[in-house]
Amino acid sequence: MEYISTRGGMAPAPFSATLLEGLATDGGLAVPETMPEITLERIETWRSLNYAELATEILSFFATDIPGPELAAMCERAYREESFSPGIVPLTPISDSITLLGLSEGPTLAFKDMAMQFLGQSLEYVLRKTGRTLNIVGATSGDTGSAAEYALRGKEGVSVFMLSPQGRMSDFQRAQMYSLDDANIHNIAVEGVFDDCQNLVKAIAGDLEFKREYSVGAVNSINLGRISAQVVYYFWAWLRASDSLTAEERETFKISVTVPSGNFGNILAGHYAREMGAPIRRLVLAANENNVLDDFFRTGIYAPRTSAETHLTSSPSMDISKASNLERFIFDLLGRDPERLNAAWRELDETGRIDLSAELPRFVGEFGIQSGTSTHADRVATIRSVREESGVTIDPHTADGVKVARELLEPGVPMLVLETAKPEKFPDIVLEATGEAPGLPADLAGLLDLPQHVVKMADDEAALREFIADRALRA
């Protein structure tokens, strides 16, 4: 397996190289040169595997340049019980037709741990093997930053420069990141919204001279190592949802999956899983008030909003108006043709939008993607109703997913909703919905009282460059 760029200007490269690059050398995103195809018979052979073993099997299709025993050891370390609750990725029914896929059993109580723990292991392996250092420059709207920092803190040969928007994360999210005092972790709070942080990261990554001089890499969902690791739990979801069925029933059994989405990374992994052969009928994208992606999948017109037009909401990890990973889906939509992709991006630069309405019938018919929007009032009502009906308390992002999932149920097709975080991370909205604020787990009880280590910075590319240059690791 080798990887090419969506924009056609990068020579095919192996998995290890894409881990270190982030953005492709031509400014595009790395994608598999060909998508692996997995038969239902092969998937059935994985039924008895634990999560680490399943991850090894699926990632072996992507990381073909990493020896099998090494890959298995990475997955075993990434998904050990010391990092995740014993019931890693449990399925929890909340109604007769909707089940939560529990992805928040890791160290930062968010689904980002599922991919980031593997990425931490694989990056350390590649850096040790090549004798290189890496300076990660990333942006977070909430959970990516803490998951990356917890996965990479104290790791040799790697440092993290994580940008976050000032005042736009929950107190818990800020405390998780800013309380870390490891020498290789640098938190930067930027004046603006997540899209401003993301634009700064892209500017740094797009400057090849600076990128090479300071060995800049990425752990945002533009890093294909994260996307490939996320593919695993879609296969796990189908296997666990079909465990009680007969062999004959499994032959035609499909699930639908609803994904709360901001940067289009989590649902892109679902798209890849479906393309590979995972028996998924529908992928349902759930947006909050920053519903650029819902607009796109309903109309075929992609029109990112400005920072000033990006709403501050009670599901802050989805407060994104320009989804980086959509480029990978549009690449597939346009026949994996870099010339057509580049033309679409020129249209975006010149007009502020891309009109792909001619492709609209393919969104559901070929790719199985539907979408919907949820508001603050919807989140509150959903958290309350799920608690009343099932006794389960969910976070606001998962609530966005459940709200949209309820609207797009199909008879006879089980709907799984990807849980994105534990409700403890968002006590204010849980209190509003239920009258009770969730308490912190015992091991995190003092987190909010710890000293915080963060540098405030204007939305200033030159200042960021200077900050990185002064602190970057050198080989």
The profile of the biggest β sheet is:
6 strands, mixed
Tell me the β content: 5-15%
- Oligomeric state of this protein: single chain
Helix percent reads 40-55%
Gap between N and C termini, in Å? 28 Å
Q: Characterize the overall form.
A: globular
Helix and strand composition category: alpha/beta
* Average residue-wise pLDDT: 94
Strand order of the largest sheet: 3-4-14-9-10-13
Low-confidence stretches: none
Can you count the helices? 20
Q: What's the total number of strands?
A: 15
Query: What is the rounded Rg?
Result: 21 Å
Describe this structure in words.
The longest helix is centred in the N-terminal third of the chain and has 19 residues, at 112-130. It is globular, with a radius of gyration of 21 Å. The protein contains 20 helices and 15 strands. The protein is α/β, with parallel strands linked by helices and 475 residues long. The protein has a 6-stranded mixed sheet with strand order 3-4-14-9-10-13, sandwiched between helices. A 5-stranded parallel sheet has the order 8-5-6-7-15, sandwiched between helices. Helix 7 links the parallel strand 6 (158-165) and strand 7 (185-190).
